[in-house]
Amino acid sequence: MKALIMLAKGAIGFVWLVLLINIFYPFPGVAAMALYIMTGFLFMMHGLQMLIFIGAFGDKITMSRWEKWSILIFGIFALLDIRRKHMM
Questions:
Q1: Which of 6, 22, 30, 70 could be stapled to 78 by a disulfide with Cβ–Cβ 3.0 to 4.6 Å?
Q2: Which InterPro entries does this one have (predicted)?
Q3: Is residue 49 within 8 Å of residue 71, measured between CB atoms?
C-alpha cells in the first residue's frame, strides 16, 4: 500500500510540475488555457480538501506542518498516508 501511495504522489507531483511549467512558460495554443483552468481547479479542490480535513479532524489528531501542506499538494493520497501513519 505504501508503494502505491508513493507512486500516486509521484504522479500528482508530475502533474503539478507540468501545471507550474505552464504558468512560467505557457504551452502553445489553447493548451495553455486548458492547463490554467486545470491548475485553478486542482488548487481549489485540494484546498477545500485540506480545509475540510483540518476542520473535521484537526483537534483529534496532531499533524505536522508538512502533513497539512501535503494535503494541498497531494490531495487524497496525502490523506491516505496520514491515516496510515496515525492508525499504527
A1: 70
A2: DUF1145 (IPR009525)
A3: yes
